[in-house]
Amino acid sequence: MLLKVSVIVPIYNGGKYAKELVNNLHKQSFESAEFIILDDGSTDETLSELRDQTELLNDSRFSIIQKENTGVSDTRNVGISISKGEYLIFVDSDDNIPEFFVEEYYKKINKNETDIEFFSFNKTKESDVTQVTGHQPIYDSIYSDEILTSNQILKLIFDFSLPGYPFGYISRKELWKDSFFPKDIHFTEDLYALVDILTNNEVRGHISNDKYYNYVQRSASIMHNAGEKEEIASDVVTDRIIDLLISRKIDKEIIKLATNFSLGHYIIHCENAVIRGNLILFEKYKKSLWTKFMNSKMSLKSRVNKFIKIIVLFFPNTGILKKILTYKRILTNQEPIK
Predict the structure, then answer these.
(1) Which of 129, 211, 230, 280 could bridge across to 96 with cysteines, CB 3.0–4.6 Å?
(2) DSSP sequence for 47-116
(3) Is the model's pLDDT at 197 over the cut of 60?
(4) CA–CA distance from 18 to each of 167, 278, 289, 295 (Å)?
């Protein structure tokens, strides 16, 4: 009998999370599932912890896969290729998973007869994974009973309304037949993968405001410590996404929205380059700002706002500009850049 759900979990040097991960998956109430945990060439005790714990629990739903270190994207792709479920769920190894998580994801996508079902999630504290942080994602403004097309979902993504976190959706495995996570990118690669499946298929999707997943914000995580290297990688991804949309002849309005999405990142990263004192990178970003601005689509309010931000970045004295941008971050309560 075909399994209903494959849960794919890449893990790298996560020995301290391995026991909790296995126990949380073991407690899942949904039986027609497989839990594929892929050790991406860990150099710590991850593999032995995973094997010891799964052997102790004797749960046939587990598969522990050892592979050479090729990164999270390629590891997810391996998981997809060997999965046997009708639907796929991606889990991050250091997050907290309530026992009804898989069951609720499956029940929603099965009830709505959709290809992909999106869910909100809880941002929780590292010190106590049951406690939420002050800033939470809210889908109230985009949630409805409406079944959405690929283009409608893309518009929400490029409107900054729907993040592309892979743990935030369950998808039909068939969608991934000709799509993948880009293995040469290790930051925001999940966004590219989501756009890939949405533009490669005629998708029926739905957005739920229910929260069944606890995303643990850890101080040592890549997301929490994203710096210049990660910013550059995310810009590569947004540019690749625009190229992908153009190559697949996606609606021009969506391409303009994606350009606005990319422009927003470029402006922030351009400002950060000034604050860091990387004037070479600053000048590189500046060359693209006006082109992206003219090729983008946004509301009048957003256009005026971005126009002012771009004008400021052409201030002739970079020393004064650095002070202006630094004080702006302080006044708007933004975290210091890394």
Answers:
(1) 129
(2) HHHHHHHHHHHT-TTEEEEEE----HHHHHHHHHHH--EEEEEE--TTSB--TTHHHHHHHHHHHHT-SE
(3) yes
(4) 18, 39, 44, 46
